[in-house]
Design goal:
The complex is a heterodimer. In chain A, 50% of the residues lie in helices and 0% in strands. In chain A, helix 2 packs antiparallel against helix 10 and helix 5 packs across helix 13. Chain A is mainly α. The N and C termini of chain A lie far apart (33 Å). By secondary structure, chain B is mostly beta strands. In chain B, the strands form nine sheets. A four-stranded antiparallel sheet of chain B has the order 1-2-3-4, with no helix packed on it. The longest helix of chain B has 6 residues. Chain B starts with a strand and ends in an 8-residue tail after the last strand. Classes of the chains: A mainly alpha, B mainly beta. Chain B: Belongs to the phosphatase 2A regulatory subunit B family. Chain B: GO terms for molecular function: protein phosphatase regulator activity. Chain B: It comes from Neovison vison (American mink). Chain B: InterPro entries: PP2A_PR55 (IPR000009), PP2A_PR55_CS (IPR018067), WD40/YVTN_repeat-like_dom_sf (IPR015943), WD40_repeat_dom_sf (IPR036322), WD40_rpt (IPR001680).
Chain lengths: 321, 423
């Protein structure tokens, strides 16, 4: 919980720094941007692996939603998220990810995947996670992803980062999401909001969230479903973008990540893509109903590639820049 | 302007400072005066010159800052002094000469230099050198440009007195002092795919005695000792110094705080001193597994890393310094505090560089930062530390207990009265 909040905050701050670095005198500082990108990555991991994704969903009411990490895999929770190598974290996170009670109900399914996910070779998860990140940073990708467009996500995988969703790859979702979530739509942006406990169980409940709910469900983990097809490696660029933009071109790309403020708002507002189910992701954010079941899958979505790919609004934003 | 580097020359007679505006100011120590036996020779301004100007890289549409990142003195071979100064992209060799005499009594020219009317010249004289007011002339002798794509973070003159190296984020180049159109790349850690970048070079230095050895530090907290005899391209290190991370201290910012901001060989050449965000560490060249000594500079900041990340303070690059006998190490901190650690007695002291506490001849009072618990009268609490007042650059006289401390745009020079006492 606090971890997630803090992680989210750190993500926002980091993005702000990356954005500001482009206008600093003397050009992009490679070292500083690299460090910022490392922090971003750690925060993202925590964000994704934090068991209480839905914490903020409740908005002011603050449903504490922080369910204690599910028994399942050992406490992945924050500790796991702290920056341990993605695979373990992700893995660990999965089980916990579900904190949501609702989820429990349907958790069988999720659980399975999660576990499965857990067993998934790290590579997969990592990749997914990484990919998610990359998406965030890769402007180009976003542009390319544009096709998938905000709308909804379309599956982005193949498209690559589109929307880089950010920590949890929650795609901006197609529309505004503010609604139901009210208060925190973005806060955790990443999946969290969405996954909020409520989400899964009642995807439609949140209106726009609907979409997300499903996907999000899972919660932070980005455990690509066992079956998920390997992430698209290509786009990896974001990871290093921030830090790595040493050359002009790279810098250029980096920069195109766009206006941070917009990014953040996008982050927050929509996660439609989240629904995606890990496997294949082809799921479109589709309407909540669909998400429902998936939503149940804890943790999967969040940064699942599909989700990530879907960042419609995100990509729009990116493209804009 | 904000001082960005401080460096004593090899004898300690001269002290050079570089600032953000591209200027270099050199101070000279006055010879001890018999009139004031207590004054061990104070430093006065000797020369000021503009070393670098802002430039614009049209190809990349980037402005190149004129801030002087580092100054290194060359060993002195004749009456002139030479130093290297560098900004992000270009290194310059400056020669500093004194002129305190001038010829007078020319036959063909008058005092102002105008040609005399030859008909008025009735006898010949030999021009004589007459004393004049000391004039310090500084002239750029070499400009080493276009050697670096990334930002230069350090330069180091080799003990062979002929070559020097310059390091940027990803590469280290070896130059000959007399050759400006060519340099040799000796380290290149740029990955084929920039997306795979995980660490950058943060500092580098030549060994003080072995002209084939140099060390470079990375953002991951490791040090690599390289031997130029092994290969032309020293990508493969001879020794890798790295301390395993303490898992109990893991946080979001673990990577940032483990990044080494400065590395310095001891005068003896046996040890290396590194500074990362919260500690200074002494490494023995013969032991790669971990440092032999670790000193906490301001561990009370460990719980505040998030705020320090927000206000960018966590990216501050503090330097460190050895004293002449390698028994004491010094580094800066916040609130204009700087710290000294005595390696033998294991005592440490925190001092402050501020106008209020630095009246001439006054003895610096040790300061203390309290972290909860009992608070003494003059203690400063962690929350009242001023993070805008940071001491990043310090230098220690090569032989005596004289230190130069740069506090933003002020330079403080402290001398040891009696034997330095560590508390």
């Amino acid at each position: 919980m606090e971890f997630k909040l803090e992680a989210h905050r750190i993500v926002s701050i980091s993005l702000g720094k990356i954005y500001n670095s482009r206008v600093q005198r003397g050009g992009i500082k490679l070292h500083k941007n690299l460090l910022v990108s490392l922090v971003l990555r750690s925060a993202r991991q925590v964000y994704l692996s934090d068991p209480c994704p839905g914490l903020y969903l409740a908005g002011p009411a603050g449903s504490p939603a922080v369910s204690p990490p599910q028994p399942g895999e050992p406490a992945a929770g924050p500790p796991a998220g702290w920056g341990e190598p993605p695979p373990p974290a992700a893995r660990a996170a999965w089980p916990d990810a579900e904190p949501r009670p609702e989820r429990l109900a349907g958790s069988a399914e999720p659980a399975a995947p999660m576990t499965g996910a857990g067993d998934t070779p790290r590579g997969g998860e990592t990749e997914a996670a990484e990919a998610a990140w990359r998406c965030v940073e890769g402007p180009r990708e976003a542009a390319e992803g544009g096709a998938g467009g905000p709308a909804g996500g379309s599956d982005g995988f193949p498209e690559g980062p589109r929307g880089a969703r950010g920590p949890c790859g929650c795609p901006p979702g197609t529309e505004e999401r503010p609604g139901p979530l009210g208060a925190c739509p973005r806060l955790d942006c990443c999946c969290a909001p969405r996954p909020a406990e409520d989400e899964p169980p009642a995807p439609p409940a949140v209106g726009s969230r609907k979409r997300g709910a499903a996907g999000v469900g899972g919660g932070p983990g980005d455990c690509p479903a066992p079956g998920s097809s390997p992430r698209k490696k290509p786009r990896r660029n974001s990871e290093e973008q921030p830090g790595g933009a040493a050359t002009a071109e790279e810098e250029e790309e980096e920069m195109e990540t766009g206006n941070v403020a917009n990014l953040i708002s996008i982050f927050g507002s929509s996660f439609s893509g989240l629904l995606r189910k890990s496997p294949g992701g082809g799921r479109e954010e589709a309407e909540g109903e669909e998400s429902g079941p998936e939503a149940a899958e804890p943790g999967q979505i969040c940064c699942d590639k599909p989700v990530l790919r879907d960042i419609n609004p995100w990509s729009t934003a990116i493209v804009a820049f | 302007d904000i001082i960005s580097t401080v460096e004593f020359n090899h004898t300690g007679e001269l002290l050079a400072t570089g600032d953000k505006g591209g200027r270099v100011v050199i101070f000279q120590r006055e010879p001890e005066s018999k009139n004031a036996p207590h004054s061990q020779g104070e430093y006065d301004v000797y020369s000021t010159f503009q070393s670098h100007e802002p430039e614009f890289d049209y190809l990349k549409s980037l402005e190149i800052e004129e801030k002087i990142n580092k100054i290194k003195w060359l060993p002195q071979h004749n009456a002139a002094h030479s130093l290297l100064s560098t900004n992000d992209k270009t290194i310059k060799l400056w020669k500093i000469t004194e002129r305190d005499k001038r010829p007078e009594g020319y036959n063909l020219k008058d005092e102002e230099g105008k040609l005399k009317d030859l008909s008025t010249v009735t006898s010949l004289q030999v021009p004589v050198l007459k004393p004049m007011d000391l004039m310090v002339e500084v002239s750029p002798r070499r400009v080493f440009a276009n050697g670096h794509t990334y930002h230069i973070n350090s330069i180091s003159v080799n003990s062979d007195c002929e070559t020097y190296m310059s390091a940027d984020d990803l590469r280290i180049n070896l130059w000959h002092l007399a050759v400006t159109d060519r340099s040799f790349n000796i380290v290149d850690i740029k990955p084929a795919n920039m997306e795979d970048l995980t660490e950058v070079i943060t500092a580098s230095e030549f060994h003080p005695h072995h002209c084939n050895l140099f060390v470079y530090s990375s953002s991951k907290g490791s040090l690599r000792l390289c031997d130029m005899r092994a290969a032309a391209l020293c990508d493969k290190h001879s020794k890798l110094f790295e301390e395993p991370e303490d898992p109990s201290n893991r946080s979001f910012f673990s990577e940032i705080i483990s990044s080494v901001s400065d590395v310095k060989f001891s005068h003896s050449g046996r040890y290396m001193l590194t500074r990362d965000y919260l500690t200074v560490k002494v490494w023995d060249l013969n032991m790669e597994a971990r440092p032999i000594e670790t000193y906490q500079v301001h561990d009370y900041l460990r719980s505040k890393l998030c705020s320090l990340y927000e206000n960018d303070c966590i990216f501050d690059k503090f330097e460190c310094a050895w004293n002449g006998s390698d028994s004491v190490i010094m580094t800066g901190a916040y609130n204009n505090f700087f710290r000294m650690f005595d390696r033998n007695t294991k005592r440490d002291v925190t001092l402050e560089a501020s106008r209020e506490s630095s009246k001439p001849r006054a003895v610096l009072k040790p300061r203390r930062v309290c972290v909860g618990g009992k608070r003494r009268r003059d203690d400063i609490s962690v929350d009242s530390l001023d993070f805008t007042k940071k001491i990043l650059h310090t230098a220690w006289h090569p032989a005596e207990n004289i230190i130069a401390v740069a506090a933003t745009n002020n330079l403080y020079i402290f001398q040891d009265k009696v034997n330095s006492e560590m508390h």
